[in-house]
Amino acid sequence: MLQDSFGRVATDLRVSLTDRCNLRCTYCMPPEGLEWLPKPELLTAAEIARLVAIGVERLGITEVRYTGGEPLLRRELTEIVTRTAALRPRPQISLTTNGIGLARLAGPLKDAGLDRVNVSLDTLDAGVFVRLAHRDRLPDVLAGLEGAAAAGLLPVKINAVLMRGVNEHEAVPLLSWCLERDYELRFIEQMPLDAQHGWSRADMVTADEILGMLSREFDLTPADPGERGSAPAELFLIDGGPARVGVIGSVTRPFCGACDRVRLTADGQVRNCLFATEESDLRGAMRAGATDDELAERWRVAVRRKRAGHGIDDPSFLQPARPMSAIGG
Ligand code: SAM
Ligand code: SF4
After folding, report:
1. Is the C-beta atom of 25 inside 6 A of ligand 2?
2. N or C: where does the chain have the smaller number of CB atoms within 10 Å of the terminal CB?
3. pLDDT digit string (tens) for the chain, length 329 residues
4. For the CA of 265, the nearest ligand
5. CB-based burial label for 42 (10 Å; 0-12, 13-18, 19+)
6. How many CB atoms lie within 10 A of CB 279?
7. Rounded to two decimals, what is the model's pTM?
8. First CA to last CA across the chain, in angstroms?
């Protein structure tokens, strides 16, 4: 088991497959992009498969989510999913993607064993999309969503980050649009994880504000009150249900006390928290000849050191050196 000193058990593994991306969302990356990891530093598909197998077979991981950067840019993605689906006990396999290319890949990924997909969509306005993501790709994202639904990757979930003065006015239109299509929408508070260090608390659209905007249009009632568990999203039934909307108040309503996540970066570092300032190098150990037992033990030690919370409110809070795209969101 991957248990930390506060008794939390990590069962949900997020694996970043690449730090590269074909968008430049302002809350994540600067418009000019970043210096990408050199290829030799990236885990190969075989190395990823080995580490994921150790996680599932020896360490109690039950859910594997592939992310990035943009995971659809990784050519071996289908092969990686196939290998993950062959593990026993078979983990749940999901993908977080910006949706570009999903129209073509959703079918093959479903056939390979992908169970679910989260697509990031912050706006329905092509002009706002360009302002926010610095690329004119909204039609590709929308086609990707349709492809995911057609391939049966259900329920299709959508992640949206609202930015003040950019797309905050789209909370209600985004939800109405998702309801018409049976997509499950989750709003995520913007976190201090952008490479430019441009986050400011005053600019963050809070969970309370989002719920306020939605409540003016819809009747929201908590779904499963008191049963948030390790799920970061607080879920609300819309107009009595069954449709739901989620709000992830990572900053103002932290869920660190119930966190069950652990992360593996594209260059093979274990991170016990999005906001961790320390990492544990599994790639170096693996390439130096470590056995599966030794790698599992390193991983256990890395999780044991997990801090109680992200500490964004502490005066001593330091933003991690790696931005979201390199950590794997
Ligand atoms: N490129 C894929 C995508 O955009 O879905 C996967 C990686 S992305 C880093 C994963 C998720 O993190 C996306 O839903 C994105 O909106 C979210 N994200 C990125 N930067 C964020 C930030 N500073 N605060 C909150 N969420 C963020
Ligand atoms: Fe790329 Fe995802 Fe970051 Fe946007 S949030 S720049 S799509 S990695």
Report:
1. yes
2. N
3. 999 999 999 999 999 999 999 999 999 999 999 999 999 999 999 999 999 999 999 999 999 999 999 999 999 999 999 999 999 999 999 999 999 999 999 999 999 999 999 999 999 999 999 999 999 999 999 999 999 999 999 999 999 999 999 999 999 999 999 999 999 999 999 998 888 888 988 889 999 999 999 999 999 999 976 666 667 789 999 999 999 999 999 899 888 899 999 999 999 999 999 989 899 999 999 999 999 999 999 999 999 999 998 888 777 787 888 778 878 87
4. 1
5. buried
6. 20
7. 0.96
8. 23
Helix, coil or strand: residue 210: helix
Domain extents in the chain: 12-327
Ligand 2 pocket, 303 CB below 6 A? no
Instruction: For residue 255, report the distance from its CA to the centre of ligand 1, in Å.
Output: 18
**Atom 2 of ligand 1 has which residue's CA nearest to it?**
97
Ligand 1 atom showing the smallest separation from residue 119 Cα: 5
Which are the contacts of 136, defined by CB distance < 8 A and separation ≥ 6?
Answer: 126, 129, 130
- Cα(26) to ligand 2 centroid in Å equals 9
Tell me how far the alpha carbon of residue 179 lies from the centroid of ligand 1, in angstroms.
22
Superfamily of 12-327 according to CATH: Aldolase class I (3.20.20.70)
